[in-house]
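During the reporting period the student researcher (J.K.) took over the structure-prediction task from the postdoctoral fellow and processed the backlog of single-chain submissions. One of the processed entries is reproduced below for the supervisory committee.
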Amino acid sequence: MFLPIMRGTLNLPAVRDPEVLERLDPSGFFSLCLRYQHHLALCGEMVGSEQIHLGNRVRDMDFDISRLMTVMTERQKKYAKYAEKLGKVHELSHQLNRCHMVLNQTLESMETLNNSLPLEERLEPFVWTTG
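J.K. obtained the following structure tokens:
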């Protein structure tokens, strides 16, 4: 059976051995703790510098995103104006097509009316020229 050096750590009746405490040297454990503390300090510094670096990048990204949002908002407004103008052009084109259709109907009605007149009262045929 293996027992620890300091038997008082077990729930067994402790055998007090004063020589054991004198033979234990805490300097090795202390140096191990110092090395671990140094390692944790280095890790903490590295994490801190990475956090600062990431914080700077996030701040730069926030600035870039806000600038990009401003540019995109301006473009959206500009394109909304263009879309409104295109809508007006489409509406005007539709009105011109209606005018052309009404004009053709009017020309047909004029020709029908002219043909229904007696020959001596008829007008010469109407010719629509553009240009």
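The committee noted the following: Residues 39 and 81 are 62 Å apart (CA to CA).
J.K. will present the remaining backlog at the next meeting.
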